[in-house]
Amino acid sequence: MAKPIITLTTDFGTRDGYAGAVKGVIKSINPDAEVTDISHEIESFDVLGAAFALNNSYRYFPRGTTHLAVVDPGVGGERQPLLIRSEDFCFVGPDNGIFSFVFQNEMITDMVVLSNKKYFLAEPSTTFHARDIFAPVAAYLSRGVGVNEFGRAAKKCFKLVIQEPRLSKGKLRGEIIHVDGFGNLVTNVAAGSLGGKKIAAITVGRRRIKRLARSYSEIKEGEVGALMGSSDLLEITLNQGSAREALRSKVGSAVTITFK
Amino acid sequence: MAKPIITLTTDFGTRDGYAGAVKGVIKSINPDAEVTDISHEIESFDVLGAAFALNNSYRYFPRGTTHLAVVDPGVGGERQPLLIRSEDFCFVGPDNGIFSFVFQNEMITDMVVLSNKKYFLAEPSTTFHARDIFAPVAAYLSRGVGVNEFGRAAKKCFKLVIQEPRLSKGKLRGEIIHVDGFGNLVTNVAAGSLGGKKIAAITVGRRRIKRLARSYSEIKEGEVGALMGSSDLLEITLNQGSAREALRSKVGSAVTITFK
Amino acid sequence: MAKPIITLTTDFGTRDGYAGAVKGVIKSINPDAEVTDISHEIESFDVLGAAFALNNSYRYFPRGTTHLAVVDPGVGGERQPLLIRSEDFCFVGPDNGIFSFVFQNEMITDMVVLSNKKYFLAEPSTTFHARDIFAPVAAYLSRGVGVNEFGRAAKKCFKLVIQEPRLSKGKLRGEIIHVDGFGNLVTNVAAGSLGGKKIAAITVGRRRIKRLARSYSEIKEGEVGALMGSSDLLEITLNQGSAREALRSKVGSAVTITFK
Q1: Which one of A258, B62, C68, C78 has the fewest CB atoms closer than 10 angstroms to its CB?
Q2: Domain spanning A166-259 has what CATH number?
Q3: pLDDT at C77 > cutoff 90
Q4: Are the beta carbons of C225 and C219 closer than 8 angstroms?
């Protein structure tokens, strides 16, 4: 039988050994677990960034994979420690919006607030729940402990509101919701929200883009273009450069689409 | 039986393939070894930084884990290549202080200077012992080769001196010994060195902090605070920001504690 | 039997989840594959940098390892998706020069242009072939699918021209071809091209270096020196610092060697 996989998505970096501690805890509890890094390089405290990284990757893992995701500025405070089970995956982390896309895309079967200390490290700290609570829970889960052993059902969970693009006077007004590592500007305009209409122009700041390319290489080197990216969202891109730098755009910047 | 784990802690980065070469050597000698990254992002030549990362993580791994740690500015020179065995773990790397906390915290049973070329790559370079000496030794060790096969007993080993905080005129004078990736300032003030006394104020530069928080989230967003961090050392922190940037502090900066 | 290893070398970073998606796809197709990161931190679009990273590491992995390498500015365009088999390894990635050193060093037995959609993800995107084409091909390959199942034989493949140093008027004129993460300047001067002659001086910019050190530690701290690096190429180095910063040199800068 295949080994259980536990993926990690955090803002810990690696240079302090915090991510290493999480791996060690998991392997100590379940030596058979296969620990796989999605990222430890999420920007510090960027919960939405972690939600994106997870959304771009979680569904490609085998059924039964547990995804541990911890960007947790509220550690030790009011926010609840969470275990979510969907039809295909489990998710463990803080209830602060990091699983927003999971709630949007998955059939959730269970949501549990972690409270059973039997499955925590002894004397958990108030500063490092990834090591002391989330890692051991993920490890016990991967050993087959039932979801309801970990605590009581969660009544409601926190979800970040991702603004939908709005259609007004024939123009679709969206915004940039993520900037990726290449400097591509990912918008909230999904393929579906174009309604099959033909684009006349896409405007970002002062830049007008007149057509949708099919691939990065269709855009001339050094030129700004637009395409439907690998997450099926409209992306503003600069072939072999950074659209973020060229357009001085950032998360929240407006993107306006007009149609033929 | 569980597979043997070998962890890696280096300042190699990953973009040159040096860390990849280390992994390849290990897997070629022992295909059953499970290679786990603690970090390849230690700052170049920062031996103490590597010692911290290791100290924050090594003890969470299963008994029997081998920790390979190489920040090695003296490679090819006088410093000795080392294998250390404690009751629970093995450690392989240069004798330059990288294992300072290991000596402090572990019951050491063996210290061996690596000299048996049978367990090195053929014609080891003078510039890359991680690949040519430390990786193969760790791999053979994980295959069950006895510690004393690798060389002669080491007479003494190098240990970095971590300054202890000093009590003078009722004030505890410590210093910052590490800055983590979030910009938290980790001091040399352990919970024990407070002697159970109640803190009146913690002073760093011009900033006075009047109480010890229990968690990051107890501190208001954007405010500087202090707490006992996940390694049980006093930490100066800025909720959802970088205390390093706000206080312009660095390793060596003074931290003074007064008591009620 | 040892598990099949698939290594990853990309410029994706990790924070967007793109590398995570690649790992997930591989594990979903072949749960037995062991996925190992060489790097996801190659500079964006730096095909030659990826070729170096791969060259510094691929040959240390066990026979039978598959190396997936994707720095792919031309994704979705004319460049062909490639599978290469040599006597010891397989390589999967775009035909854009990323395998230049592989062609130089390996006995190639097969080169195949990937075209059999049976081994792609359904409806592959035009923007993310690593996830949709290269990862599944590597995974099926590791499950034992024959090389020729994936497509037709490639007629010719793209190879970056790495300038050889030239001997002129008794001087050997080379150049810097790579700067590593420590700031070491790696040149195109291989040990062999010195022809056994004794070096009188090595000149980089205004700096003259009068001898070849055997190891980094032979050079005084803070001084610039030269040595044959771990890839058997002449390297300009600054002990415990960055030669790149000290000499303001970069890829393409001239290096001149005079002999005794």
Answers
A1: C78
A2: 2.40.30.90
A3: no
A4: yes
